[in-house]
Specification:
Structural class: alpha/beta
Largest sheet: 5 strands, mixed
CATH topology: Glutaredoxin
Shape: globular
Order of helices and strands: HEEHEHEHEHEEH
Helix content: 25-40%
Strand content: 15-25%
CATH architecture: 3-Layer(aba) Sandwich
Strand order of the largest sheet: 5-4-3-6-7
CATH superfamily: Glutaredoxin
Distance between the termini: 67 Å
Number of domains: 1
Number of helices: 6
């Protein structure tokens, strides 16, 4: 009887622990649409700086929060490269690497042939400000600095979903 109780209690304990660690319902999973996107300035792997505000001046910006250790993140790279190429004069992408070392990001970018700029959120402060809870998280910011759309995770329809939202913003 004792053994049966412990088997039944284990899943409940795991669920309780997961709920306790999730940050509670008061913390959003990502920024809410139509709220102001917090500005930031982060270093690139080669030591330069990129700020959201500077990129917004030339059009909408897609922020991609990712990590070199995120398996699903690798699937989004070709889609974002295609979007960057197609809308290069009207739209920007910033890949925000969470917690990765500069050399890891540089190696990953070279291996995956990433065509959009990457910045380092080594301490996780920007991802915390944006309430990022998992990778990949994509956030479309309009030229007005407002969050227009948020996508959590990866799906095969992500490219078309982002392109549809972007096309609406560019009209």
């Amino acid at each position: 009887m004792r053994r049966l109780f412990s088997r039944a209690a284990l899943p409940l304990a795991a669920l309780a622990l997961a709920m306790a660690c999730s940050g509670g319902p008061e913390q959003p999973a990502a920024p809410v649409q139509q709220t102001k996107a917090p500005d930031f300035s982060l270093a690139t792997p080669l030591g330069g700086k990129i700020s959201l505000q500077a990129k917004e001046a030339s059009g909408p910006v897609l922020l991609l929060f990712w990590s070199v250790y995120c398996g699903a993140c690798q699937y989004i790279v070709p889609d974002l490269n295609a979007l960057q190429e197609k809308y290069k004069d009207k739209f920007s992408i910033i890949g925000v690497s969470i917690g990765d070392a500069p050399y890891e990001v540089s190696d990953y970018a070279a291996t995956k042939k990433i065509k959009y700029p990457l910045v380092l959120d080594t301490e996780g402060k920007v991802s915390e400000t944006y309430h990022v809870r998992g990778t990949p998280t994509a956030i479309l910011v309009g030229r007005d600095g407002m969050v227009k759309h948020v996508w959590l995770g990866y799906s095969p329809s992500l490219y078309s979903d982002i392109e549809t939202s972007l096309s609406t913003l560019l009209k």
